[in-house]
């Protein structure tokens, strides 16, 4: 590569000497406004794909809006008041929260344990670390279909295994807790490895000397894990919880494909595993095509996520100070 | 790994939440160029049996290429997609199949479809059974949305090997004589069950319920969930109650395999010969063949349905206004719904023609189905088709039917007793109708 060593191009020098005040002003404008220019793409995209749908959904939710109809009638908050008294809606809220808790708690515990294992000296360490991420790169639909077959009432492998140990067949799709468990298993299978890698990354940032001095003080592996690893991982754990919250509250593909056949969108004969997003779909699209009502469900889902996220932020604030000290 | 700032987390949260709100299915674009060869997309569900007809049409019309989408798919997944395409004004095929239960809802918003009366379809009236033709018209009779394809004449399909194992006759004439009424059908089922063949007598109570309802309604009131003034009559129409009670008898006798209709398990149950009989509208023969697979060829046969007559299902072909090749699409729809097209489809996959000329055609009358032990399907189905009594369907028929069948399903699974099930059915139907 040839490097020019002739000094600044003559033109530039001339301009600067000729119009110093203008150049100066441009530089000031540049300093002041170009950062906004750099962040604009995000905000533009957010406005088009985030804000606009959000506002439009709200507008739709104030109408009696048939998906195919013309001239929807403005009904104010009627969809919302109706929704508040809708037992099926609250059923879907309970299902969503139930599946969320049932999937997130074991998932994060398992991820923590996996990360701890992977953090040790192992043969073929990279292979193991990559292997835990494999479930995450498979398609959700494929996972859901395979699990739906595994959890079949009559031809499913899980019931066959249960039968071997003398447990009666479970109708996974028509039993609320069983359906939640099966769907949680799907979610966990996919996301445990992903969280384990995040935890692993955080674990590797913990200074070795902490463990060394702990060993000198006579702390065993378990003690080290609970007294050093877990406290120092707190911010990461909170991050993982929040991400799982957002994903968990919007669960759709897994429960939808878990229920096959007619009206799968109901999530079982008594709506055993119908999540909020499924209820939204049922109302906005088949069989009701009531876009206004579906949009109201979407907005309440948004509100619920905001509430749960706020709770998370509060926890983050309370724990954040203590954890930050330990963070590098 | 550092601490994520709160602002960043909020941003992530916002983006993720809004990503959800913005999620809608996007239809494909045929991308046909002007002047070049025209590609017509036909959207169907299940089995319409058009493959050979397309090739024939393409050969006769150079420059036209036909692509079919959705073959073998579930109606439940097809209908919301079609509605989204229509609402979005983009994505739908040039010719779309519409099941009769959904046509009612589309008729309320006819602006989405080409008025076939403006394109010479009025001359075709005589090619269809009277009620099938009328079914495609809007309430004011001024717009024709769809041309009829098939009707769903009823029968019972049964597995001969399972009947033999249970010591029952296997010959279709003899089997038909076993069940002149649904009570007889239940009685035969009890005999079958007593022999412990390892299979259930029927697949799912909901399918049988729908069959009994449509038959009873056709023979008595002429309407099912809605009366002809579009008033919801789930709790007052004796036909609904009668069908429910008969279905409860079937459930109480333990005859149902309780496979949720159209679910993965239901499909597996065909393959594994887990039930002996199934309510069998003409179009179901294609479904059975697809689900049970070539291994079961010759093991199935077709008998008369208990009670008499009845129609379940049947579809129409329509041309959405958004089609960019309306003229070509209309011609194709006319061809596929002509007597010749209907005969071709019947020979391919079994949907029963809705054209009286086709129903009298020797190709239909004398036809047999090799998969079903050479059963004379033409005679079995076509004989009753011309005297079929249609059942009127109200505006939210699909949503109401979903609720009622679902209540039947909860009783079948033992989650609700029959009385609770009936309460659920009527209450949920009212709720669905009001939505």
Automatic annotation (TrEMBL), chain A:
Q: Which GO terms describe its biological process?
A: transmembrane transport
Q: What Pfam families does the entry give?
A: BPD_transp_1
**Alphabetical UniProt keywords:** Cell membrane, Membrane, Transmembrane, Transmembrane helix, Transport
Q: Which InterPro entries does the UniProt record give?
A: ABC_transporter_permease, MetI-like, MetI-like_sf
**Which is a Gene Ontology cellular component entry for this protein?**
plasma membrane
Q: What is its main location?
A: membrane
UniProt topology in membrane: Multi-pass membrane protein
Give the CDD domains listed for this entry: TM_PBP2
Transmembrane segments annotated in the record for this chain: 36-59, 97-118, 130-151, 232-252, 296-316
> Can you tell which superkingdom this protein's organism belongs to?
Bacteria
Give the location in the cell: Cell membrane
Every copy of the ABC transmembrane type-1 domain together lies at 93-312
Q: Which family does it belong to?
A: Belongs to the binding-protein-dependent transport system permease family.
**UniProt-recorded name of the protein:** ABC transporter permease
Which organism's genome codes for this protein? Answer: Micromonospora wenchangensis
TrEMBL record, chain B:
Lineage top rank: taxon: Bacteria
Signal recorded as keyword: yes
Provide ranges: composition bias, Low complexity: 425-435
- Gene3D superfamilies, A to Z: Periplasmic binding protein-like II (3.40.190.10)
| Keyword vocabulary terms for this entry | Signal
Q: Which residues does UniProt assign to the signal peptide?
A: 1-27
Q: Name one Pfam family in it.
A: SBP_bac_8
Q: What is this protein called?
A: ABC transporter substrate-binding protein
Gene source species: Micromonospora wenchangensis
